[in-house]
Amino acid sequence: SKKYDGTNSSQYFYKPADSQSTLAYAGPAWDYDSAYGSYAQKRTLKKLENGKGLWIGNATAEDYWWPALYKKADFRERVLQTYDEVYRHGLQILLGNESGEGTPLRSLEEYASAIEASAEMNVLRWPRQKKNSIVAQTGYSFRDNIKYLTQYLTERVQFLD
């Protein structure tokens, strides 16, 4: 997702007692308002504005866990396996390239149609400011944002594949 703050905040690791598990866990996932290219500052815009490249795996601060994990071959292999076995199909469903039958997932277009009226009411209640600190241009209308997200995910799948 190229989650902007996924390297230094909005992440959680935990380790149960050894009697319960010898594994460390990451999760739950949350705080995706600055993911999928929806947020970037001028200094990070080129790295985040499109679906190509790695963000967390290339972070440089020494206190970031993800780059250290990504250096481990077994971790990288498991990430690739999980992407191929779990996430790739879900992304294809979201993009409308595969059927979501038998899953709770639907295409972005189906989700967009289901919430479009609510999104319009949201803008009436809380008008979007024209001037803010967010540099990424994701679109000023609901449909612009759906188009942007679809393009972003298409680039992301191409890169990840």
- As laid out across the biggest beta sheet, the strand order is 1-2
The end-to-end span amounts to: 14 Å
Sheet with the most strands, sense and barrel status: 2 strands, antiparallel
Quick one: how many beta strands?
2
Order of helices and strands: EEHHHHH
Helix share, percent: 40-55%
Class per helix and strand makeup:
mainly alpha
Q: Mean pLDDT, rounded to whole units?
A: 84
Number of helices: 5
Regions with little confidence, pLDDT below 50 for 5+ residues: none
Radius of gyration: 18 Å
Strand content: under 5%
Task: Describe this structure as you would to a colleague.
The chain is mostly helical and 161 residues long. Helix content is 43%, strand content 2%. The chain has five helices and two strands, in the order ββααααα. The chain has a two-stranded antiparallel sheet with strand order 1-2. The longest helix is centred in the middle third of the chain and has 22 residues. The radius of gyration is 18 Å and the shape is globular. The two termini are 14 Å apart.
What's this, in brief?
With 161 residues, this protein is mainly alpha-helical. The protein contains five helices and two strands.
